[in-house]
Structures are given as C-alpha cells and as structure tokens.
TrEMBL record:
GO molecular function: triose-phosphate isomerase activity
Entry protein name: Triosephosphate isomerase
Keyword Transmembrane helix in record: no
Keywords per UniProt: Cytoplasm, Gluconeogenesis, Glycolysis, Isomerase
Lineage start: Bacteria, Pseudomonadati, Pseudomonadota, Gammaproteobacteria, Enterobacterales
Family to which this protein belongs: Belongs to the triosephosphate isomerase family.
Assembly, per entry: Homodimer.
Reaction catalyzed: D-glyceraldehyde 3-phosphate = dihydroxyacetone phosphate
Amino acid sequence: MTQPAIWLGTSLKMYFSYAQTLTWCRAVAQIARQHPAVREGRVGLFVLPAFPALPAVKALFADTPVRVGAQNIAPAASGAWTGEVSASMVQELGGTLAEIGHAERRRYFAESDAQIAAKVALALQSRLTPVLCLGEAQQDTPDAAAEACALQLSRALAESQSLHGSLLLAYEPQWAIGAPQPAPEDHIRAVCRALRQQPLPPGIALQVIYGGSAGPGLLSRLEESVDGLFLGRFAHDPAALAQIVDEAAALLARESV
C-alpha cells in the first residue's frame, strides 16, 4: 500500500471526554471528506483516541482514509496483565497504529527500553504501524541529540530484526513537549536527517515525523526534512488542523512543480 507523502496525526491523550472525542472526530471526518489531498491519499491523517472510544471513533471515520489507533499497547501478547490492552485487540477493533514509547509513558509509568522493544515487535506482529516516540531529555546540540535518538531507535527495534511492516518515527525532544515553541528548525532538520540514515531491519519501512509543540506554519518551514507532524494541543481545534492540512497540500504542490 502506498504511504502518504505527508502524515499529520494526533494523540488525544486524556484531554477529551467520550462525548467531546466524538464531537471532535465528526469535525475531523468532515475535513477528511472535503479535502482532496486527504481523499487522494497524498496527506494522511491519523487519530489516537483513548481506548474506550476506539470502536466509535473507527465508525465515525469509516468512510474516510483517516487511520485510527491506540495510545499504548501491552508489552505482552496476552495473559494476566490487569488493566492492559493487547496489540491484537487493537487490531481486532479496527486500529491500524499503536503509539509506543512516549516520554510521558517513560516518565510516569517507568517504561523501559526492553518493554518498548517488546511493544514494537508485538505491534508489527499484529499488523499495526508503531508510532514510535523518541527524543532527548535535555536540550543539547543536534549531534548529541541525534546520537541519543539513534540509540533509542536501535534499542526499540531490538526484537524486530526479522519482522516486516512500516514504522512512523515521531521525533519529540522531551524539552519541547508542551513548550511555547517547537524545537528550532535547524535542530529538527539535523536530527531527522540523522534518523533517516540509521540502519534498520531489512523488512522495516521508515517515515519520520516531528512532534513537540508542532502547530500551524511549522511544516512549511521544515519542508522535505520531515514526513509530517505529530500534533499536540494545536490539533484540538479542528480549524487549526484544517489549516495544517492545507499547508501540507500546498507544500506537496510546490514540490511537484
């Protein structure tokens, strides 16, 4: 399946109630139906709602190309894992992506590199696209950031060397998450360029998106150095999301000339 040239996605985290989630998704579904770049598959949209909303959200996007996934999966295929949700159940519910390794999961739930590697492998085995989040903890030079992120990527793929599938790599410097501004554009370009050059398992296809206070205007400044954006609070306003979809379509139009 041909992948979109630009991905725009968001995790709703725990910001919305169930009713608010459905209201937001209805508005985004309308954007997806109306926008030619989304309908034609040139700009891909994905949404990661809270677990209880997955079936309803999937139904709301059923007649659109918007992909739906989970904000997390368990580090085991099945068994006595109270409160967890398996990758296979996400896939069974119609999800096609799984967010893995977000800084908040590492910080608040003490997720280890070994758990993240297990989740990536389980996602791929369940035909889910991992949205693998990584990024340096403290602001540093682009070279140091790239080195730290390359190590995180290598550890995350430790159990996936013989697996096949696509991987959305979300570069999110931890110091930029929730900040007033995203990381400097030169910094983002350098780290994303380095991540694209990292060795990967032969069966894994990689696209690199940027997250960390990403909002309107950033994609145009980054241009072809990233494959899209992992949007945070800016995407909570469907009008702002529509503006970024327009921006992505305009960028692709310029690149095709």
